[in-house]
């Protein structure tokens, strides 16, 4: 259905990349109007998040959280996630890698879908090459939006690429659990993957150059995650690098399958044999084959830099949303940017001024929320204490909140506010199920709500959110 020729080759808006950021941008650019849009996707409409990142990873992690919650109450015996049922649930959330539902949604919104690889071929012109090598060119009356995301980086370590290592796509779409797996990296992808791989029975070793996992979060949060990983049997090797990899029997067996025979890895003056290696060492922007030079656009280490309207400076018809602009590599932030870019395009197309906050990217400047679904969860927004060295730091032990003790026996966690004058500029929560605490902090920071006014936002009792009262009491004392 979606690969048949479009009824016309000119559109008001052309979007390269069919992930959530591109979908949102297309929707907001044409909704409530007679404008037209086309979404060009070379893989699955819905993008990385829907099939290879957010949705499958959280579907794998939720049964583990449920088992941990059961163990934290003296009501049940030993509880473990069932592998077959967990993978079935994961597959249901990824629609079994079938994007027909996403295509139906797009076309229901008036967004045409074309399959193929897209490259710029001139100002407001995009040439698409389909799977058979056929080419067609579409032109945009108002805007071309680049929403091509990022791809996993495989470092140039001797023997690593030849070993066909796993990347995040293999880890989230695993069909078998390696008996022994090494993870290169200590970031979010590495920590979350280690959590579900260990819970599903793998012997996991994490190796990274940093002196702590999740080095961008508050140190107390890193320490809690490190303890949580080690409690699950994960060996975490800090301040170390993998020096070489050898896999004589390397085979491309498909995503999520062990890629051949055992590997030998060397690191920190050690040699070890594992059954698989997962590379979680960062992402690279998907701009290398967009032919940006044909319209005189350069990148910053591959990223498309944009202004507050998500427009590429000097090219008022060209926009970049989501991971590809390097602002915040998070799905919710890409969707936020897509909404802004779409609103800007709609306003410009109808001759309206761009003098409202809805046309400006404000959240990417110090108001970015994120949740890391490890054991325990980490939820943070805004600045850390290291990023605001002159600010006041207020800490509170989450275990002292009545709602936390009801949540789990032996509840361990911590909350921190970073305060500049009378305003919160950062917040971090670490503990079981703290993901639901972070949006209140996001509202406080985005709304620039003074502490005196927050004092009147009374938390319900007995909930973990009572920590807000305790933090504010501590700040006043």
TrEMBL record:
What's the EC number here? 1.-.-.-
Q: Which keywords fit this entry according to its UniProt record?
A: FAD, Flavoprotein, Oxidoreductase
Query: Which residue ranges does the record assign to the FAD/NAD(P)-binding domain?
Result: 11-337
The cofactors it requires, by name, are: FAD
- Domain (Pyridine nucleotide-disulphide oxidoreductase dimerisation) spans 368-468
Query: InterPro entries recorded for this chain?
Result: FAD/NAD-bd_sf (IPR036188), FAD/NAD-binding_dom (IPR023753), FAD/NAD-linked_Rdtase_dimer_sf (IPR016156), Pyr_nuc-diS_OxRdtase (IPR001100), Pyr_nucl-diS_OxRdtase_dimer (IPR004099)
Q: Name one GO molecular function term.
A: oxidoreductase activity
Q: Which SUPFAM superfamilies match?
A: FAD/NAD(P)-binding domain, FAD/NAD-linked reductases, dimerisation (C-terminal) domain
PANTHER family in the record: MERCURIC REDUCTASE
The family assignment reads:
Belongs to the class-I pyridine nucleotide-disulfide oxidoreductase family.
Which protein, by its recorded name, is this? Dihydrolipoyl dehydrogenase family protein
Which lineage?
A: Bacteria, Bacillati, Actinomycetota, Actinomycetes, Micrococcales
């Amino acid at each position: 259905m979606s690969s048949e020729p479009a009824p016309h080759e000119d559109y008001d808006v052309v979007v390269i990349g069919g992930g959530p950021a591109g979908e949102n941008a297309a929707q907001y650019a044409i909704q409530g109007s007679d404008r037209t849009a086309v979404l060009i996707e070379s893989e699955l409409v819905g993008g990385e998040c829907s099939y290879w990142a957010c949705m499958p990873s959280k579907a794998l992690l939720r049964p583990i959280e449920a088992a941990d919650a059961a163990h934290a109450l003296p009501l049940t015996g030993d509880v473990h996630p069932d592998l077959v049922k967990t993978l079935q649930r994961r597959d249901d959330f990824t629609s079994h890698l079938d994007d027909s539902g996403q295509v139906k949604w797009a076309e229901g919104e008036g967004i045409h879908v074309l399959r193929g690889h897209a490259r710029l071929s001139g100002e407001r012109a995009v040439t698409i090459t389909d799977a058979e090598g056929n080419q067609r060119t579409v032109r945009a009356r108002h805007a071309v939006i680049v929403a091509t995301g990022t791809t996993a980086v495989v470092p140039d370590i001797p023997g690593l690429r030849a070993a066909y290592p796993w990347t995040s796509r293999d880890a989230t779409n695993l069909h078998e659990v390696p008996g022994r797996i090494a993870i290169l990296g200590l970031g979010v992808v590495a920590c979350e993957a280690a959590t579900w791989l260990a819970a599903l029975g793998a012997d996991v070793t994490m190796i990274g150059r940093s002196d702590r996992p999740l080095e961008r979060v508050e140190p107390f949060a890193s320490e809690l995650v490190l303890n949580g990983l080690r409690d699950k049997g994960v060996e975490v090797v800090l301040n170390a690098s993998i020096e070489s990899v050898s896999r004589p029997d390397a085979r491309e067996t498909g995503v999520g399958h062990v890629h051949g025979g055992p590997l030998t890895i060397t690191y920190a003056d050690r040699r070890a044999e594992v059954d698989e290696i997962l590379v979680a060492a960062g992402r690279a922007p998907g701009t290398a084959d967009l032919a940006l030079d044909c319209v005189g656009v350069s990148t910053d280490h591959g990223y498309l830099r944009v202004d507050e309207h998500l427009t590429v400076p000097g090219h008022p018809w060209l926009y970049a949303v989501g991971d590809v602009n390097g602002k915040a590599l998070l799905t919710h932030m890409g969707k936020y940017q897509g909404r802004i870019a779409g609103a800007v395009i709609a306003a410009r197309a109808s001759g309206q001024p761009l003098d409202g906050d809805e046309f400006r990217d404000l959240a990417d400047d110090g108001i970015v929320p994120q949740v890391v679904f490890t054991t325990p969860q980490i939820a943070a927004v805004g600045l850390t204490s290291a990023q605001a060295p002159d600010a006041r730091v207020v800490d509170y032990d989450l275990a002292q909140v009545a709602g936390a003790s009801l949540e789990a026996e032996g509840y361990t966690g911590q909350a921190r506010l970073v305060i500049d004058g009378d305003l919160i500029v950062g917040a971090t929560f670490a503990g079981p199920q703290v993901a639901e605490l972070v949006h209140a902090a996001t509202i406080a920071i985005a709304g620039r709500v003074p502490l005196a006014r927050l004092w009147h936002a009374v938390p319900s009792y007995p909930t973990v959110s009572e920590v807000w009262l305790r933090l504010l009491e501590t700040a006043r004392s």
